[in-house]
Task: structure prediction
Amino acid sequence: MRILSVNVGLPRTAADRSLPGSAFAAGLASGIDKRPVAGPVAVAAPGPKGEAGGGLAGDAVVSWKHHGGDDQAVYAFAREDLDRWERELGRTLPDGSFGENLTTSGVDVSGARIGERWRVGDRLLLEVTSPRIPCRTFADWLGERGWMRRFTEEAAPGAYLRVLEPGEVRAGDPVTVVHRPGHEVSVAFAFRARTTERALLPRVLAAGDGLHPDLRAKAERYVASPPAAEEVPA
Result:
């Protein structure tokens, strides 16, 4: 298991878009255009959501309301999943195409459990917090018809991570799972609970302190006022 590439980006607008078929909204700035960089990149906890951007030095997070902060400091996506989308979409998707900071190889990112801890390289320690939820910016960036629905149905969203111990990351760094919780709540499970199977939300709480605060709050609200018509999946 290793880091295939480390990807950072600067704020760009529609005029800067480079992916084939992109229909990015005119005039809207975004940091979703991440590209691989050479050499080590410093990674640290950025600060509270809404008051800070991402965890990688030199990486832009434009919308602090929805992105960045300590619990979404780093976004990882598996190269194997990008390869699957390449085959389905019939287009090349370079590392960083989904706005991920870390493109991994040999890591089951969406199968990782909430609270799982990864040692990356010698010093950096990351903890899985939540799945990525697709947004309109992501859909506009890819320029694929029905993208939000298609990405949601795939339920392999990649993972946000918080920084427990700062360090540097570079392409080729090994990834070692140093702690894997015993609960059932994987990134993919949490994604389904947030999107297509909301009746799973009470079970998400088993992830405890590892949960992203927003996901915990959503699950707690569901438990307090569950929709009467929903059934809990087996």
Observations:
- The mean pLDDT is 89.
- The longest strand covers residues 124-131.
